[in-house]
Protein backbone atom coordinates (compact mmCIF):
# COMPACT_ATOMS: atom_id res chain seq x y z
CA UNK A 1 0.00 0.00 0.00
CA UNK A 2 1.51 3.24 -1.04
CA UNK A 3 1.51 6.20 1.28
CA UNK A 4 0.34 9.38 -0.40
CA UNK A 5 2.85 12.17 -0.45
CA UNK A 6 2.12 15.02 1.90
CA UNK A 7 3.04 18.45 0.69
CA UNK A 8 4.51 20.73 3.34
CA UNK A 9 3.97 24.39 2.56
CA UNK A 10 7.13 26.46 2.50
CA UNK A 11 7.55 28.88 5.38
CA UNK A 12 7.36 32.33 3.88
CA UNK A 13 9.26 35.29 5.23
CA UNK A 14 6.84 38.10 6.06
CA UNK A 15 7.19 41.25 4.01
CA UNK A 16 8.57 44.20 5.99
CA UNK A 17 6.94 47.53 5.16
CA UNK A 18 9.51 50.34 5.21
CA UNK A 19 9.34 54.14 5.25
CA UNK A 20 12.48 55.93 4.00
CA UNK A 21 13.35 59.29 5.56
CA UNK A 22 16.17 61.48 4.20
CA UNK A 23 16.34 65.10 3.10
CA UNK A 24 18.17 64.13 -0.11
CA UNK A 25 15.92 62.66 -2.80
CA UNK A 26 18.87 60.94 -4.49
CA UNK A 27 19.66 59.07 -1.27
CA UNK A 28 16.05 57.92 -0.96
CA UNK A 29 16.07 56.85 -4.60
CA UNK A 30 19.24 54.82 -4.07
CA UNK A 31 17.87 53.17 -0.94
CA UNK A 32 14.62 52.31 -2.71
CA UNK A 33 16.59 50.75 -5.57
CA UNK A 34 18.83 48.68 -3.28
CA UNK A 35 16.03 47.53 -1.00
CA UNK A 36 13.92 46.63 -4.03
CA UNK A 37 16.33 43.75 -4.61
CA UNK A 38 14.93 42.06 -1.50
CA UNK A 39 11.55 40.48 -2.30
CA UNK A 40 10.57 40.59 1.38
CA UNK A 41 11.02 44.35 1.79
CA UNK A 42 8.40 46.79 0.51
CA UNK A 43 9.17 50.50 0.55
CA UNK A 44 5.74 52.00 1.22
CA UNK A 45 6.69 55.67 1.37
CA UNK A 46 9.28 58.42 1.67
CA UNK A 47 9.73 61.62 3.65
CA UNK A 48 12.20 64.49 3.39
CA UNK A 49 12.36 65.57 7.03
CA UNK A 50 11.33 64.47 10.49
CA UNK A 51 8.01 66.31 10.46
CA UNK A 52 6.99 64.64 7.20
CA UNK A 53 8.23 61.31 8.54
CA UNK A 54 5.97 61.50 11.57
CA UNK A 55 2.94 62.32 9.42
CA UNK A 56 3.69 59.63 6.84
CA UNK A 57 4.40 57.00 9.50
CA UNK A 58 1.04 57.64 11.15
CA UNK A 59 -0.67 57.40 7.78
CA UNK A 60 1.15 54.34 6.42
CA UNK A 61 1.90 52.44 9.67
CA UNK A 62 5.19 50.93 8.43
CA UNK A 63 6.97 48.14 10.28
CA UNK A 64 10.32 49.93 10.08
CA UNK A 65 11.39 53.53 9.47
CA UNK A 66 14.89 54.10 8.09
CA UNK A 67 15.70 57.54 9.49
CA UNK A 68 18.41 60.03 8.58
CA UNK A 69 19.49 62.10 11.60
CA UNK A 70 20.58 65.44 10.14
CA UNK A 71 17.58 67.00 8.40
CA UNK A 72 15.84 70.40 8.27
CA UNK A 73 12.51 71.26 9.91
CA UNK A 74 12.75 68.38 12.38
CA UNK A 75 15.92 66.34 12.90
CA UNK A 76 15.92 62.55 13.00
CA UNK A 77 16.50 62.20 16.74
CA UNK A 78 13.53 64.42 17.58
CA UNK A 79 11.42 62.61 15.00
CA UNK A 80 12.44 59.20 16.33
CA UNK A 81 11.41 60.14 19.85
CA UNK A 82 8.03 61.45 18.65
CA UNK A 83 7.46 58.49 16.35
CA UNK A 84 8.21 55.92 19.03
CA UNK A 85 5.71 57.63 21.33
CA UNK A 86 3.03 57.74 18.64
CA UNK A 87 3.70 54.31 17.10
CA UNK A 88 5.41 52.02 19.63
CA UNK A 89 5.10 49.01 17.28
CA UNK A 90 7.09 50.74 14.54
CA UNK A 91 10.86 50.34 14.84
CA UNK A 92 13.36 52.98 13.75
CA UNK A 93 16.78 52.42 12.21
CA UNK A 94 19.08 55.44 12.38
CA UNK A 95 20.91 55.66 9.05
CA UNK A 96 23.44 58.47 8.97
CA UNK A 97 26.94 59.46 7.92
CA UNK A 98 28.34 60.26 11.36
CA UNK A 99 29.53 58.41 14.43
CA UNK A 100 29.59 61.51 16.63
CA UNK A 101 29.04 60.44 20.20
CA UNK A 102 26.05 62.70 20.85
CA UNK A 103 24.35 61.43 17.69
CA UNK A 104 24.85 57.77 18.61
CA UNK A 105 23.66 58.28 22.17
CA UNK A 106 20.83 60.58 21.11
CA UNK A 107 19.45 58.17 18.53
CA UNK A 108 19.50 55.17 20.84
CA UNK A 109 18.05 57.13 23.76
CA UNK A 110 15.29 58.40 21.44
CA UNK A 111 14.31 54.81 20.72
CA UNK A 112 16.15 53.75 17.55
CA UNK A 113 16.67 49.99 17.56
CA UNK A 114 19.70 50.12 15.27
CA UNK A 115 22.42 52.57 14.23
CA UNK A 116 23.87 52.18 10.74
CA UNK A 117 26.11 54.24 8.48
CA UNK A 118 25.11 55.22 4.96
CA UNK A 119 28.09 53.40 3.49
CA UNK A 120 26.65 50.06 4.68
CA UNK A 121 26.08 47.52 1.93
CA UNK A 122 22.56 46.83 0.70
CA UNK A 123 22.73 43.36 2.25
CA UNK A 124 23.76 44.80 5.62
CA UNK A 125 20.93 47.32 5.57
CA UNK A 126 18.39 44.70 4.47
CA UNK A 127 19.54 42.44 7.31
CA UNK A 128 19.13 45.32 9.77
CA UNK A 129 15.60 45.97 8.49
CA UNK A 130 14.55 42.33 8.86
CA UNK A 131 16.20 42.24 12.29
CA UNK A 132 14.38 45.40 13.38
CA UNK A 133 11.05 43.90 12.32
CA UNK A 134 11.86 40.98 14.64
CA UNK A 135 12.82 43.36 17.44
CA UNK A 136 16.55 42.63 17.10
CA UNK A 137 19.35 45.18 17.35
CA UNK A 138 21.97 45.87 14.70
CA UNK A 139 24.72 48.41 15.47
CA UNK A 140 27.73 49.70 13.60
CA UNK A 141 30.73 48.24 15.49
CA UNK A 142 32.05 51.68 16.50
CA UNK A 143 28.60 52.79 17.65
CA UNK A 144 28.36 49.65 19.76
CA UNK A 145 31.80 50.28 21.25
CA UNK A 146 30.89 53.82 22.25
CA UNK A 147 27.59 52.75 23.78
CA UNK A 148 29.35 50.07 25.83
CA UNK A 149 31.95 52.59 26.97
CA UNK A 150 29.27 55.07 28.03
CA UNK A 151 27.33 52.31 29.78
CA UNK A 152 30.45 51.41 31.73
CA UNK A 153 30.92 55.07 32.61
CA UNK A 154 27.35 55.22 33.92
CA UNK A 155 27.95 52.10 35.97
CA UNK A 156 31.08 53.65 37.50
CA UNK A 157 29.21 56.84 38.35
CA UNK A 158 26.64 54.82 40.24
CA UNK A 159 29.34 53.42 42.50
CA UNK A 160 30.15 56.89 43.90
CA UNK A 161 28.67 57.69 47.28
CA UNK A 162 26.66 60.94 47.59
CA UNK A 163 29.59 62.56 49.43
CA UNK A 164 32.06 61.46 46.73
CA UNK A 165 29.76 62.89 44.06
CA UNK A 166 29.71 66.26 45.86
CA UNK A 167 33.50 66.22 46.13
CA UNK A 168 33.75 65.44 42.41
CA UNK A 169 31.46 68.36 41.59
CA UNK A 170 33.56 70.72 43.69
CA UNK A 171 36.76 69.47 42.07
CA UNK A 172 35.24 70.24 38.66
CA UNK A 173 34.56 73.81 39.85
CA UNK A 174 38.22 74.25 40.73
CA UNK A 175 38.05 73.93 44.51
CA UNK A 176 41.10 72.74 46.44
CA UNK A 177 40.94 70.08 49.14
CA UNK A 178 41.06 72.85 51.76
CA UNK A 179 38.13 74.65 50.07
CA UNK A 180 36.12 71.44 49.90
CA UNK A 181 36.85 70.64 53.56
CA UNK A 182 35.61 74.08 54.62
CA UNK A 183 32.55 73.83 52.38
CA UNK A 184 31.56 70.38 53.67
CA UNK A 185 32.58 70.87 57.30
CA UNK A 186 35.02 67.96 57.34
CA UNK A 187 38.77 67.61 57.74
CA UNK A 188 41.14 67.99 54.82
CA UNK A 189 42.28 64.40 55.44
CA UNK A 190 38.69 63.20 54.94
CA UNK A 191 38.52 65.08 51.63
CA UNK A 192 41.77 63.47 50.52
CA UNK A 193 40.26 60.07 51.26
CA UNK A 194 37.16 60.90 49.21
CA UNK A 195 39.30 62.11 46.31
CA UNK A 196 41.47 58.99 46.40
CA UNK A 197 38.45 56.70 46.41
CA UNK A 198 36.57 58.44 43.61
CA UNK A 199 39.67 58.48 41.40
CA UNK A 200 40.05 54.76 41.98
CA UNK A 201 36.39 54.02 41.28
CA UNK A 202 36.37 56.07 38.07
CA UNK A 203 39.74 54.63 37.00
CA UNK A 204 41.22 58.12 36.71
CA UNK A 205 44.72 59.30 37.59
CA UNK A 206 44.39 62.97 38.47
CA UNK A 207 42.08 65.73 39.66
CA UNK A 208 42.21 67.23 36.18
CA UNK A 209 40.89 64.01 34.66
CA UNK A 210 38.21 63.91 37.35
CA UNK A 211 37.13 67.46 36.54
CA UNK A 212 36.91 66.71 32.82
CA UNK A 213 34.99 63.52 33.54
CA UNK A 214 32.45 65.39 35.69
CA UNK A 215 31.92 68.08 33.04
CA UNK A 216 31.69 65.60 30.16
CA UNK A 217 29.11 63.42 31.88
CA UNK A 218 26.97 66.22 33.28
CA UNK A 219 27.88 65.62 36.91
CA UNK A 220 28.99 69.24 37.22
CA UNK A 221 28.90 72.41 35.15
CA UNK A 222 31.12 75.47 34.98
CA UNK A 223 28.16 77.63 35.96
CA UNK A 224 28.15 76.42 39.52
Summarize the structure.
The protein has 224 residues and is of the alpha/beta class.
Layout of helices and strands, plus pairs?
Elements: E1 16-21, H1 25-35, E2 41-47, H2 50-60, E3 64-67, H3 76-86, E4 91-96, H4 101-110, E5 114-117, H5 122-133, H6 141-158, H7 162-172, H8 177-184, H9 188-201, H10 207-216
Parallel strand pairs: 1-2, 1-3, 3-4, 4-5
Helix pairs in contact: 2-3, 3-4, 7-9, 7-10, 8-9
Textual characterization of the structure:
InterPro entries: CheY-like_superfamily, NreC/VraR/RcsB-like_REC, Sig_transdc_resp-reg_C-effctor, Sig_transdc_resp-reg_receiver, Tscrpt_reg_LuxR_C, WalR-like. Residues 153-218 form the HTH luxR-type domain. It comes from Deinococcus marmoris. Pfam families: GerE, Response_reg. The modification 4-aspartylphosphate is found at residue 68. The protein contains ten helices and five strands. It is of the alpha/beta class. It has two domains: 16-149, Response regulator (Rossmann fold, 3-Layer(aba) Sandwich), CATH 3.40.50; 156-216, Arc Repressor Mutant, subunit A, CATH 1.10.10. Strands 2-1-3-4-5 form a five-stranded parallel beta sheet, sandwiched between helices. Helix 2 (50-60) runs parallel beside helix 3 (76-86) and helix 3 runs parallel beside helix 4. The longest helix is centred in the C-terminal third of the chain and has 18 residues, at 141-158. The N and C termini lie far apart (91 Å). The model has no long low-confidence stretch (mean pLDDT 85).
Amino acid sequence: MSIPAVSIPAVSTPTVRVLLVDDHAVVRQGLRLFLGLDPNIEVVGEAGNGEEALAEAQRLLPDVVVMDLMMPVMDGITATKALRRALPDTEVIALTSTLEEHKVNGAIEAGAISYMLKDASSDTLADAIHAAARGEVRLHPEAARRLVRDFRSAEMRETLTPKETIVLQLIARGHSNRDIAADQGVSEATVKTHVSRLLSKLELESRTQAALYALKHGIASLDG
